[in-house]
Amino acid sequence: MCFPFAKNIDVGDIAAKVKTLFDMEISALEDEILTLQNDIEMKARSTFAQPGEHVKFWKLLVEEKYPNLRRCALNLTALFGSTYLCESAFSHMKIIKSKYSSVMTNDHLVACLRLATSTSTPDCEKLAASSQCQVSH
Questions:
Q1: Measured distance CA(13)–CA(5) in Å, rounded
Q2: Dist CA 59 CA 74 (whole Å)
Q3: Closest CA to 14 of 1, 32, 24, 27
Q4: What is the pTM of this model?
Q5: CB neighbours (10 Å) of residue 10?
Q6: Coil, strand, or helix at residue 137?
Q7: CA atoms of 108 and 81, how far apart (whole Å)
Q8: 42 burial type by CB count under 10 A (0-12 exposed, 13-18 middle, 19+ buried)
């Protein structure tokens, strides 16, 4: 899938592997792969692509012409992003649950991991303005 224009590609083998991974129809996949291999414009774009730009190449595929290949390529690139997030969460968990805080409960660990891996930032001023002060008895 990285370079569909190689000369020794077994289209049937690639389609079978993609079908097992993403549950797609083999005949449609084979047809799209063969159509892509004969697409002169896409072949030219892939030839001039810089190393590491294969994700950009797969985004250039027209949804109407290559729906299965486009979905497959985007799903494959998403796999690596989710692996990164998993490893990142594990690294944060190791730091949070070190020898100093090994008595932490699972609920607290989940909350700390959510904070450590979240990209959102709280609006402290808005939170403070919306809370009520407790009056003494």
A1: 15
A2: 8
A3: 1
A4: 0.52
A5: 9
A6: coil
A7: 26
A8: buried
Q: Output phi, psi for 58, to 5 deg.
A: -70, -25
Instruction: List, for residues 76-127, the tens digit of each pLDDT value.
Output: 777 666 677 778 888 888 888 776 666 778 888 888 888 888 778 878 888 8
Six token digits for residue 73 = 């390529």
Residues 6+ apart with CB under 8 A from 66: 32, 35, 36
Q: Six-digit token pair at 103?
A: 């008595």
The residue written with tokens 């000369």 in the block is: 7
Quote the tokens at residue 54: 């294969």
Rounded to whole angstroms, how far apart are CA atoms 120 and 134?
29
Tokens 């402290």 locate to: 124
| Domain range annotation of the chain | 11-84
CA atoms within 13 A on the CB side of 56: 9
- Given CA atoms 19, 24, 30, 35 in this order, what sign does their dihedral have? negative
Question: Residue 99 is which amino acid?
Answer: K
Amino acid in position 36: L
